[in-house]
Amino acid sequence: MSGLESLYQELILDHAKNRRGFGLAEPGAHSATVHQRNPICGDEITLRVDVEGDRVASVTWEGAGCSISQSSASMLVALLQEDGGEDGMPTADVQALIERFRESLRSRGKIPLDEETFADAAALSGVSKYTARVKCAMLAWVALEEGLRKA
To answer: CA neighbours within 13 Å on the CB side: how many for 40?
Structure first.
């Protein structure tokens, strides 16, 4: 295993153990709660997104499953908190991130996730080579996408 693969594995395990955004926040005036399940491996997530105006104010979640699904949800929240700052990230930017994440994971390793854009979530690039694991990594991102439609 290369040094970079080892680092990515450590990031995935860290986020799976120290889950950012874990625990559903109280619903806000413009929030949506979504439940998604991956029937292939049993991963589940309940995600709550709170939208204020045209910005994603917060994302919290609860779930259970493999380390990939859990770390992906944690990495998504960390990315939104880091890039969105106190005011939150514009919903259009969040939707663009989801699309780029989906495109990369469906590329079978041909389109890696950019570290500058995706921060720790770039560690999930290797998942795209394992079709059975793509749904695990996408679970939280799909839940957020649905939540944005509902909020």
So the answer is: 10
Q: Is the pLDDT of residue 22 over 90?
A: yes
Token pair listed for 131: 């079709």
What is the pTM (predicted TM-score) of this model?
A: 0.94
The SS3 of residue 57 is strand
Helix (H) or strand (E) holding 101: helix 91-105
- Nearest CA among 20, 79, 45, 56 for reference residue 151: 56
Q: How far apart are CA 126 and CA 91, in angstroms?
A: 27
Which tokens belong to 33?
């709660």
The whole-angstrom separation of Cα 115 and Cα 119 is 5
Spatial neighbors of 77 by CB under 8 A, at least 6 apart, are 20, 21, 59, 60, 61
Give yes or no for residue 1 having a pLDDT over 70: no
